[in-house]
Specification:
The structure is a single chain. Helices cover 80% and strands 0% of the residues. With 169 residues, the chain is an all-alpha fold. The chain has one domain (28-167). Helix 2 runs antiparallel to helix 3. The protein starts with 13 loop residues before the first helix and ends in a 6-residue tail after the last helix.
Length: 169
């Protein structure tokens, strides 16, 4: 009366399941963002320009007394303006799409306790770090900030997944 060994499904630890669902939802959101940026990169460029104008208005008042900080901020905005092209936004959206398809596949496989999913997930994050540096330049604030965001979030999740890899086969 014992069930077959093969018919018993392994239990996914709660924390691993939680991480996978967070990654799945985040990846789907970013895939939609990538598709949106690919289909209309001009809108992304306009939105970035509008944000830069708001930042300039907001920080200009607070930096009037500090010319060094004002100069650095102007340099950053100049960097952003140079990188904020339709072509760059389209290329970055393409890499966002590829990166997050890989992280989605990876999270789905890890939810099924497949160790191979960790490799997909890690590759997606690696692309997410390298791509903005290639698209915007490694000396550009936009490239560095996108890459840093991916290093922090992707690195944290990769570390947490690595701690749970013992449950995967």
């Amino acid at each position: 009366m014992f069930p077959d060994q093969e018919s018993i499904k392994p239990v996914v630890p709660r924390f691993l399941r939680f991480l996978c669902f967070l990654s799945i939802f985040g990846s789907i959101y970013m895939i939609l963002t990538g598709i949106s940026g690919l289909s209309d990169p001009e809108t992304v460029t306009k939105a970035m320009s509008k944000n830069m104008e708001q930042w300039q208005d907001y920080f200009q008042v607070s930096m009037k007394n500090d010319p060094v900080a004002e100069k650095k901020f102007e340099d950053i905005l100049s960097d952003l303006s140079l990188a904020n092209t339709t072509g760059n936004m389209r290329d970055n959206s393409f890499f966002i799409l590829i990166s997050n398809v890989l992280t989605l596949i990876g999270a789905w496989l890890m939810l099924r306790l497949r160790k191979r999913g960790f490799h997909f997930y890690f590759l997606g994050n690696l692309i997410g770090v390298i791509a903005p540096l290639l698209v915007f330049g490694s000396d550009n604030f936009l490239g560095i900030s996108y890459a840093t965001f991916t290093v922090v979030t992707g690195g944290l999740f990769s570390l947490l997944y690595a701690l749970k890899i013992k449950y995967m086969h």
